[in-house]
Amino acid sequence: MTDRAGHSLQRRLLVTMAAGFAILLVLISLLLWTYSRNAANQTHDLLLAGAALSILERMSVSPDGITVDLPNSAMEILSLNPVDRVTYRVFVPGERTITGAEDLPAPPDLRLTATPEFFDMRHDGTDFRFALQGRQLAMAQGRQWVAVQVGQTVEWRTEQQISLFSTGLAGLAVLSLIGLGFVWVAIRTSLSPLRQIASDLAHREPSDLGLVQGAPPREIRGLFDAINGFIESLRRNRTLTETFIADVAHQTRTALSAVQGHLSLAADEKDPEKMRSRLIKADRQAARTVRLTNQLLANAMVIHRSDGATLQPLALRPLVRDILAESLRDSRMRDVALSFNGDEIKEGEDMICGDAVSIREALRNLIENALRHGPPDNTITITLAATDSDIRLSVEDAGPGIPDADLHRAAERFTSLSEKTMGSGLGLSIVKAVAEGHGAELILRRSRLGGLDVTLIFQRIAAFLLLFVLVAAQPSAGLAQTLRIFSATDTPAMQPLIAAFLAETPGAEIDYVEFQTVDLYEAMLALDGATPPDVVISSAMDLQVDLVNRGLARRIQLPPQVSPPDWATWRSEIFGFTFEPAVMVYDTRAVAASELPVTHRDLATFVRENEARFHGRIGTYDVVASGIGYLYATQDSLQGPQVLRLFENLGRTNLKTFCCTSDMVAATAQGELAFAFNAIGSYVSEQVETDSHLGLHFFDDYNLVMSRTAFVPMRAPNAELAAQFITFLLSAEGQRIIADRTPLLPLVQPQPPSTQIGRQIQDRIGTFLPIRLTPSLLTHLDELKRQSFLSAWKTALGR
């Protein structure tokens, strides 16, 4: 819009209010974003500082130098953030790393102090927030600094920052809407003349194309003029349309009247020869009328297809050859030399996106025009030539041609430039409509043969693009996918789940590779650049969490109806799909149910009081070789000091250790063991139900529960299929199959319980302590912590 002299109300309203709102919103948004970031950082930095301080307090000086007993509380503090991965290191500045990741970054100018320093840096391709804090320890050579660096990824704090920012923006949005309401009232009041114009136009008759009258304000004068200009354009277009309809009616009426006139004269004529002459004239006029009608229909058809037809890949050379063959059957072509140049074009070089019907009609009209306007012995040459980007279709003749001064109006409707061969004037108009519908260029010029040269230039389809179009047009064929699973779960236990999944997923195959838990963990760490499996399944939850914390897992979006318990999932990357309580399995011939210990403390007393009786007849996991055994033992150690007391008592009875639950159960069934503890409940229950000499026992103080977990590696070749498999494991159908057709136990027990172990779980539902999938499981994977724990375990057992 162009403003007239004087101030503009529209500019005052729009520019002033919009600029004011925009500047205000930008400033407030910047302040709100900064506030949100600081608030999120302060909240999460407390976790980092608390974890760092907790580790610092467990530092000590030993004869071998500075050491640290990584506290579980440090990882528990970091686990209050349920999303982010964690990392840490304890080191002597400038000397060595005591424990943790050795490659953590730090700003070169950061000074070590007794208060935590926070900074953001990238580590392993991921953004981390770090806390660095130091402490001085008294050494023989004097006081020495020791530092702790703790880091977390920034996903959750970023989400919290965005949440705070979004909440603040929502309030701003409400205020802005109120402000915009006032602006709307002001604009509506100030620009009421627009409504008057709208009312005027709304109450007009469709035939009323008169200009809008009035003296509008300066702010809407441009709109007012534009409306009148548009009305003027409509008036001109209607005039042209009416003229076109009148021309069509006139052409048709004139042609039909001429036919009728010749027939009437023929009917009145008595002389046969004169009657024949009149009939010949009527026949010629009828032919012209038929041609006119066909041209009018063709013109309407071409315009319609140009507007609505879907262009498809089309080869021009066979299409042109078909038209030539059709034209040669016309009796008028007997003396005409019709030739085609284009056989040198290779297959695929003549491809365009086009409509075959429209192009056929255009080519027919060009040949027809050459016949009508040229001499009887005319020469017509059709040429097809391809370049790197386009293909040219040319029709030349040896007729009189069109003067250069008339070329610009030759394609106009009902324009016939030849008085000798007065036609409909629609032939070249149809060709022009076809060119416009295909985005092609139409060129009219003098032919090398002396007549008219009409050239249509189409855009070619490149070979690779043609292949893409053809492939995209075909339905994609289903390709078989092989899902490769690395698992520490016995194959027979997983077989019903695998069979059910394959039944629901046609074309899928599964390659199931079985490992021990520690071997599986080491195999994943040793992959390096090798292709990983698609799914990793293990009961060693701590080892699985460590792999996920290293950034090796892919995030999966579960459907809303699939929702595992909070303790059985972390970061939407690792998921527990079974409920596996640790149990005590006993030989009913060696231990009576009435004397079974009720709590873990009672178990230590029970072993001490029956030391000779159970010598060499108590079993449990080998915590050095078994990942699940180490997990159970370390989680037991967090429940109280009675575990070390239990280990000491077990050491005096010559405790036997095993790699797996199946061996413990077999030894108990054969009478080699009186009882074994911390066995996997699902495996034990299957044997107990078939062997009358075996019993299954839970404690009343607590019973650890682990879950078999699964995750999809980051570079899994079939990640989507792997996500479907994990979703199936967690689905209602998958959990039902686990409960009914496998020895495993589902996350939620069916009601009522259908198995003996299910009924026992129901009776003691409040005593089960699930091991949560959190970074706290990393505590006992710290190398110093692991060595310390294993050393205490071996010492307690006298090994």
UniProtKB/TrEMBL annotation:
It is an enzyme of class 2 (transferase). This is histidine kinase. PROSITE patterns: HIS_KIN. Its main location: membrane. The chain crosses the membrane at residues 12-35, 162-187. It catalyses: ATP + protein L-histidine = ADP + protein N-phospho-L-histidine. It comes from Litorisediminicola beolgyonensis. Keywords: Kinase, Membrane, Phosphoprotein, Transferase, Transmembrane, Transmembrane helix. InterPro entries: 2CSK_N (IPR013727), HATPase_C_sf (IPR036890), HATPase_dom (IPR003594), His_kinase_dom (IPR005467), HisK_dim/P_dom (IPR003661), HisK_dim/P_sf (IPR036097), Sig_transdc_His_kin-like_C (IPR004358), TCS_sensor_his_kinase (IPR050428). Residues 247-462 form the Histidine kinase domain. Its EC number is 2.7.13.3. It is found in: Membrane. SUPFAM superfamilies: ATPase domain of HSP90 chaperone/DNA topoisomerase II/histidine kinase, Homodimeric domain of signal transducing histidine kinase, Periplasmic binding protein-like II. The keyword Membrane applies.
